[in-house]
Design goal:
By secondary structure, the chain is mainly α. The protein has one domain. The chain contains 4 helices and no strands.
């Protein structure tokens, strides 16, 4: 979670620690990479934010969806595949839903990512 602030890093790392208990290490590593992209975006958009409770649909989530749609692979500089874009949104969606279900104090007070936000995959 190198792209997040120190205050947010604690929440992301705690979530990933719990994920390791129920997922394979490679799945948790992939989720960490995807969440790191969101953490970096959240920090860039709102560097003063100290908690995920500060998340706002328009300012943080919608701008992340737009950024993901135009993101490129940092190694190849090619646009992200629809599968990777979908994976990034699902990682954030899963984390926010899980921490809300687990009654974490850091959880946003309302649902912010919806299934209609998921990029459509080609058939």
């Amino acid at each position: 979670m190198r792209r997040s602030t120190a205050l947010l890093r604690t929440t992301f790392v705690a979530y990933l620690d719990r994920l390791v208990a129920t997922h394979t290490r490679s799945t948790a590593t992939g989720t960490a990479s995807r969440l790191n992209n969101f953490a970096g975006h959240f920090t860039a958009v709102d560097p003063a934010s100290a908690s995920l409770t500060d998340l706002d649909r328009r300012r943080h989530i919608e701008s992340y969806l737009t950024a993901s749609a135009t993101a490129v692979n940092f190694r190849t500089r090619a646009p992200l595949s629809p599968t990777e874009r979908r994976g990034r949104v699902l990682a954030v969606h899963g984390m926010l839903n899980n921490i809300a279900e687990w009654d974490w104090l850091e959880a946003p007070t309302r649902r912010l990512v919806f299934t209609s936000d998921l990029p459509k995959l080609p058939r």
